[in-house]
Amino acid sequence: MLIPLIFLSYFGSLASAIFLSAIAYDWRYSVISHLISPRNNPKFHAVASFGIAITGLLIIPFAGYINRRMRVASSLGANIGTVAFASGAIWLILAGIRELGAVTGRLVQAEQLYTAAHSRLQNVVELTKKTPRRPRVLCLEWIDPYYCCGHWVPEMVELAGGEDALGRKGADSVRISWTDIAALSPEILIVSPCGFGAEEAAEQAKQLLQQRSWNDLPAILNDRVFAVNANAYFARPGPRVVDGVELPAHLIHPKLCDWRGSRNAFRKIHFSDIPSRRDP
Fold first, then answer.
1. Same domain (yes/no): 62, 113
2. What are 245-259's pLDDT values in tens digits?
3. What end-to-end distance do the CA atoms of the chain give, in Å?
């Protein structure tokens, strides 16, 4: 009986909060943005928070049952090993390939995959060395409120031949201000909302560029705004981080670095395509 009540409380409260909020775009974006920054809609935040609190209370009597089940599962899986791909740095992520190969008895194949990945990264580094300077890049992991990139993404930008001074290498992404963005004056803007594909990210980028304050940034003036498939290439600490380096390398240095991946990996956002603009 508790399980249906838990689901009803949690999802019912979110549904009520969404109903009370004006939905101007993707509902996932609306939910997350209002929870992170409730100042624009305190009613939404209050309803959602109340529902989550009730859900937490309902889970408490269920904890004993879960604990007993986990003990059974632990005893059954005592001899099963696990491998976690470490995050925070690209070399740690790639080292996980070797560890996984050792655990699964596929060390030769893992070594081949690791060598190929390292070779591709080195190729990007060698290509981007030919550029006289590193452009200023801003990777946004969220647009309302603004969040910089973190963990391995700043390193990806660095390997790709760019410089994201607001990115937090090896650390969590954090909220940043418009003042920070204006001071950076990015020459290239990459919109990569966590968990979103290219088409959804493109909609977020268009929402962002409706704010008039962005008009004078070099990235907008020079038509260097891109929405990327963050879910596939930026958000997961696995072998695909190599593709995630090759993609921004192409966006930052298109004449030096080709992109041979999916055509759905990114969308170029043209400022002239933004239908209307508003103040933030």
1. no
2. 999 999 999 999 999
3. 46
